[in-house]
Design goal:
By secondary structure, the chain is an alpha/beta fold. It is 33% helix and 22% strand. The chain binds ligand BES, manganese (II) ion and zinc ion.
Length: 485
């Protein structure tokens, strides 16, 4: 979707839209429209859209109002974003190719106006290239949005938001692709293309290099697949040369069958999005790099496919991680932590980060605990936890903190190795986090986001259609912004 700023509405565009607040004064509109809005109980609340028609010199004109709620609402920016997104939801496949968006009626700051455009753009993402027979009237038509009536600084702010949109779109795309198309090598290729010419530095580790490094935990997960594992690192040096980077690390299991501890068939297709953590990291990084953030950031993604075959690892196998700690693999379906432990260790050895945040679709138990409203946050540092909670609240990628404690840690001691990869049934998301914590150096602030319930949605949300949500990308971008020099 192309967004352009102009002084006055171009002629010939028949769809005119304005964003309005709760109880807005509509008195300059055609009386029939005012009555219509009243009859339709349009109140201007966030997400509410009213459409009316009028004849203008013999030509039919569509006029729509999208509600942004109260001017002084806590979540004003997100409400305005929702007003933009609701318009896309209504008009993306409406047959209209262009619309005029008048933002002069809602008392918007430049930042808020740019937020409306972000919502408009984000809600337009689709992944329908494999639907060769999609009916014509179900295809996206809306291509161009002419924006009028914005504060002068909006255009510059939109440039940053457009970079964020591109990042979220990359996350959604990676998460949407089926696993026969997207596997470790092609995940790397997509990112190489996306980051081409941005100035970010890309490093890829292949199986041989990871063997040399001793990444027995990560490689054990991938050994049952014909798709070779990879580690992908993207390094952005936008900050002061001496500053230690912020590291963001993602679980990129491009398909999770469970391995020999095979998952039941029903719903297994969902496990194509078990790379959602890595998708969020890649997308967040594209936003950060696209904005040319003045911060040093390194993104690391552990990419594997978890398959059962004659060479797959078995329950009871003991693997040696790069850190030297040995792991008893009780359940080959608890593979994400095995991938992350080597990715986290390598990240610390290679980049000596100031702080680390990992994102993973790590446990089904996280969905039982928090459903699809919040991602789970675990952290060894209160300040880092608060920073992430704030970034989540500001972007709508909401988080909820859960505990870590020595008593949980004890539950994953193994009788035969240093640690086992599953604990008892209770507190499954916490013991998974405890597992990761054993691979974090003392003194390094670290947080783990279990986003199992957040990367995929069965129904449309405010800035996504059903399917990939892009959760995490914006949160990471916002989080990193606080470390900019
Ligand atoms: N990728 C899954 C977690 C998951 C499940 C994410 C459902 C999204 C939706 C993970 O690898 C897994 O299988 N975890 C197991 C851990 C268990 C064996 C301790 C789980 O949650 O059942
Ligand atoms: Mn699994
Ligand atoms: Zn998994």
């Amino acid at each position: 979707m192309h967004i352009t700023f102009t002084q006055s509405a171009p002629e010939k565009v028949r769809l005119h839209v304005r964003i309005v607040n709760s109880g807005a004064d509509l008195s300059d509109l055609d009386p029939a429209l005012i009555d219509g809005a009243k009859a339709a109980r349009f109140k201007g609340s966030p997400g509410q859209v009213f459409e009316g028609f009028e004849m203008n010199e013999g030509v039919l004109q569509r006029t729509a109002l999208s509600g942004a709620g109260e001017v002084d609402a806590d979540k004003r920016r997100l409400n305005v974003e929702r007003a933009g997104a609701a318009l896309t939801a209504k008009y993306l496949t409406s047959g209209e190719k262009e619309l005029v968006l008048d933002l002069s009626h809602a008392d918007l700051s430049g930042e808020e106006a740019a937020a409306a455009l972000l919502g408009l753009r984000l809600r337009a993402f689709r992944h329908d290239m494999y639907r060769t027979k999609l009916a014509k009237d179900k295809r996206a038509t809306l291509e161009k949005v002419h924006v009028i009536g914005v504060p002068a600084e909006t255009e510059a702010m939109w440039a940053d938001n457009e970079a964020i949109a591109k990042g979220v779109e990359l996350s959604k795309r990676l998460t949407s692709e089926p696993a026969n198309i997207l596997y470790p090598e092609t995940f790397v290729e997509v990112c190489e293309t996306a980051f081409e010419g941005t100035g970010a530095e890309i490093t890829v580790l292949d199986v041989e290099q990871m063997e040399e490094l001793g990444m027995g935990a990560l490689l054990g997960v991938g050994q049952g697949s014909v798709r070779p594992s990879r580690i992908l690192a993207i390094n952005w040096k936008g900050g002061n040369p001496g500053d230690k980077p912020t590291a963001i690390v993602g679980k990129g299991v491009t398909f999770d069958t469970g391995g020999i501890s095979l998952k039941p068939p029903a719903g297994m297709e969902d496990m194509k999005w078990d790379m959602g953590g890595a998708g969020a990291v890649a997308g967040g990084m594209l936003a950060i790099v696209g904005r040319k953030a003045k911060a040093n950031v390194v993104a690391v993604m552990g990419l594997v496919e978890n398959m059962p075959d004659g060479n797959a690892q078995r329950p009871g196998d003991v693997v040696t991680s790069m850190s030297g700690q040995t792991v008893e693999v009780i359940n080959t379906d608890a593979e994400g932590r095995l991938v992350l432990c080597d990715a986290l260790h390598w990240t610390q050895e290679t980049f000596d980060p100031a702080r680390i945040v990992d994102l993973a679709t790590l446990t089904g138990a996280m969905i039982i605990a928090l459903g699809h409203e919040h991602g789970g946050l675990f952290a060894n540092d209160d300040e880092l936890a608060d920073q992430l909670l704030e970034a989540g609240a500001a972007t709508g990628d909401k988080l909820w903190r859960l505990p870590l404690a020595p008593a949980y840690d004890k539950l994953i001691d193994s009788p035969i190795a240093d640690i086992k990869n599953v604990g008892p049934r209770g507190a499954g998301s916490i013991t998974a986090a405890q597992f990761l914590q054993r691979f974090i150096r003392k003194g390094t602030p670290w947080a783990h986001l279990d986003i199992a319930g957040m990367v995929w949605a069965d129904k449309p949300g405010h800035s996504w259609d059903k399917g990939a949500t892009g959760f995490g990308a914006r949160l990471l971008d916002r989080f990193v912004a606080r470390f900019e020099s």
